[in-house]
Amino acid sequence: MAAPAAVAEARTHDAALDRIKTIVGPKGWIDGTDAMRPYTEDWRGLYKGAARLVVKPATTGEVAGVVSVCHEFGIPIVPQGGNTSLCGGSTPGDDGAAIILSLARMHRVRDLDPANYTMTVEAGCVLAEVQNRAADADRYFPLSLAAEGSCMIGGNLSTNAGGTNVLKYGNARELVLGLEVVLPDGRIWNGLRGLRKDNTGYDLKQLFLGAEGTLGIITAAVLKLFPKPTDVRSAFCAVPDIASAVTLLGRARAESGDAVETFEFMPRLVVDLVLKHFPDTHDPIQTRYDQYVLLELVSTASGESDLAAKLEAILESAFEDGLVLDAAISQSEAQRQDFWKLRENASEAQKLEGASIKHDISVPVSRIAEFYAAAHDKVMVVDQTVRLVAFGHVGDGNLHYNLQAPEGSDGKAFLAQWERFNRVVHDTVVQMGGSISAEHGIGRLKREELAHYKDGVSLDLMRTVKAAIDPKGILNPGKVL
Questions:
Q1: What is the pTM of this model?
Q2: For the chain, how many helices (H) and strands (E)?
Q3: Is residue 8 pLDDT above 90, yes or no?
């Protein structure tokens, strides 16, 4: 029989949940294990948690009301957008103590100011829709990643998402001018300013960008817009090695007037896995090579662009100098999208192929080739049968240094080596002045790794900030720290 105190606590929490349901109305909550499963499990299948309730507020006021109740009763909250986290950052723990607060119903574009090059959007706006609304106004929002059809802008900002255009436009935090945030006690901080110059004290928005919902719940943001590209030219290039790719990047930036928007590296194995698992994909180059890059130049100039001539000149010079072995230049938007299918389906192809161990790392661009060789040698010492699937945003120093289980092997046995692989890869990253998390965040997956590698002063500062803003520890517990 349950103790009287436990029964009383359960009844109190039931009453709190009833208050929350009243705040969001009948369309604003979901219960039942089966109905909540899409929210309690991550898309990779690594984390399968439990929750008391999924709450879906429709306004910032409703978010604040829900958080106020949770603060009063000490109920943990897991904020969630599109639930596309690769680190378990948006899934609850196993104890079932938390509620999930989904921002999916908050999907309004509150304002679009073309003259100020800004757009104010709510956290539940799907990234692709943000891009489309900007384009409709003859503007450009450059944040772009494979999950853009389902991920939501609140989650993108909470994780400081990267993607394929960081080289030219920066990470998510560099695309934000203002935020609206619900704090852990239910207060609303209104920092929705569309100003590019504002030196009135601390830049508070930076506390919440990349904090993974542990300090506050982002409910809206003022985003930076840019001139809409008038011309985009793409080339799928075979290169001798990753060192040649880095040299090609520098040359392309210099000779194009820094018009390089995307520079993505892919080994042959990535191409083969995508071709294997996605029948509608095609090999752009008939001859097989070991390494490739997807290079893209963009222009926003009005009138006729000379971008095609620039790209051809860059590739011709690179071919003569041995930096490029072969290349296919897109002749249509359809062909350009065919190139992109090989890159954007890389992660999903790995998932379909079987067990893999993923590392989202960054090092200075100048040390990419050195890291690639050193980490490979150390990984082979752990297991010579592993398949190296290292691809990604070489232009900004970010590699998805993933390790695929040998074909036909025991996936569970391979994943049991996760910590050994982590140690050799992450040790090499840190030795080269890099980061163990370039764009995916920490979440649940890398908490111990962060504690292992982050210096003590940084960890103390982070804990101090967390304790000051969320003293009850109710926002996304078990994540980051």
A1: 0.93
A2: 17, 19
A3: no
